[in-house]
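Aim 2, interim progress: modelling of the BES-bound target.
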Amino acid sequence: MKFFIKNSILEKEKTDCIIIGVFESCNFESDENYLHPSICIYINNLIKKGDIDGHIGQTLLLYNIPNIICERILLVGCGKKNNLNRHHLNKIINSAMTVLNKRSIQNIIISLKKIILKENDIYWSIRGIINSINAFLYKISEKNIYLNAISFHIKQNNYLNIAQNALKHSLAINSGIIAAKKISDLPPNICNPLYLSKKVQKLSEKYKDMMNSTVIDIKEMENLGMNAYIAVGKASKNKPYMSVIEYSGRNIIKKDQKVIILIGKGLTFDSGGISIKPSKNMHEMKYDMCGAAAVYGTLIAAAELNLPLKIIGILAGCENMLGGNAFRPGDIIKTMSGKTVEILNTDAEGRLVLCDVLTYAKRFSPDIIIDIATLTGACVVALGNNFSGLFSNNNDLACSLEKASYETHDKVWRLPLCSGNEDELHSNCADFSNIGKSKAGAISAAYFLSQFSKEYKWAHLDIAGTAWNSGKKKGATGRPVELLSQFLLNKSQFL
Ligand code: BES
Ligand code: MN
Ligand code: ZN
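Predicted structure of the complex, ligand included:
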């Protein structure tokens, strides 16, 4: 899809359709260089006849409009005057797209005069609309997409730059979201740890002036002492691979630019291991690599935005399987940090993989580490499917993530790092056990990770409830690529 920003005279535009908003019980008044008064009068008469009353998402397609070059106008209901939020915007765009995605309609212009957030924010309106359009297009298969160019029409010259920026940012971030969704939706017999590492290699070749990648295999993990990571992966024929991408923006100003590390849980399948999961919906555990996919997608967005930052993405690829060689409940494992862990449940594997990656990451002397993981079912119980769990040992970092979340509506909710139970992870034969004692499963998992992240600013996103949809709409959501990309974009704007 091609996108453009326009601030031409609407009635002189040659296009298949112009989308125009109408408010509930409002006169369609003509004002400053919007639409020629005669067209407004024409539309107003139609509204008066009662064919459309302006409810959110209502549509009315008009042909043969006088004094205008375009073939059609699509009126869409925008609800109460100047009262649109992101949900409304999404609804409006969805119904407009449904009406307009026809063979004969290939290019359209969306007038932002009324189809705009109530704060009148051009930037976030465009970001929101493009998100909705892309979500719509992702749903339908490619051969059913007829639209090929979408323009945004704004009246004010002085907003052109802002609009162009919104467009640029949206497209970059969206390419990251799509990449993350695609890789997450792959079946586990295709997308295994080796496959992830190949994707990373290809990515670093594509952006070779900004990226370098290295892949750590099980041999090297052994040398490094990453025994917890290895324990999880060793029963599978698909051996673990940890893929590391170093991104360095072309236009970095500071020599000593601080490093931000993103670590993604990349369990390409989580059977639970010896503590095997119930078989109902076990297939969904192919999505246990959505954290890694989000890191992959975010790096694409960063490269497309050419962010002047140093970012290291680590995809912790691994498969948790059963077998004669599998780790077991009762095993005691020495992690890379030197701390020992008593395994009480082999299904609490994400934290074992991540704890070694968190230790490994120290070699880059990072300023910030964010890990992203489909870590606990308990997080889904606590927060449902709209909010990712946010945990952090640093308030500034948590606030920046909350800000990006608030802006993008890629929602997070902060949870405490400590359940209040001092002996949450107590073991009488190791430094920690790998599961907690309380019911606060999301917290005890985060607390476990925090024990390996004391030396830097660290945040953990538990995306178990937000990374994919179940049931009829089964599929990856691409979250939290937008949140992370926005976080990075905000960071680079403060440089
Ligand atoms: N990948 C799962 C978490 C998960 C469960 C994500 C359901 C999405 C939906 C994770 O590895 C896991 O199995 N966690 C266990 C931990 C428990 C054994 C302490 C869980 O949440 O049940
Ligand atoms: Mn598990
Ligand atoms: Zn898992």
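The longest strand covers residues 259-270. The domain at 175-492 is CATH 3.40.630.10 (Aminopeptidase).
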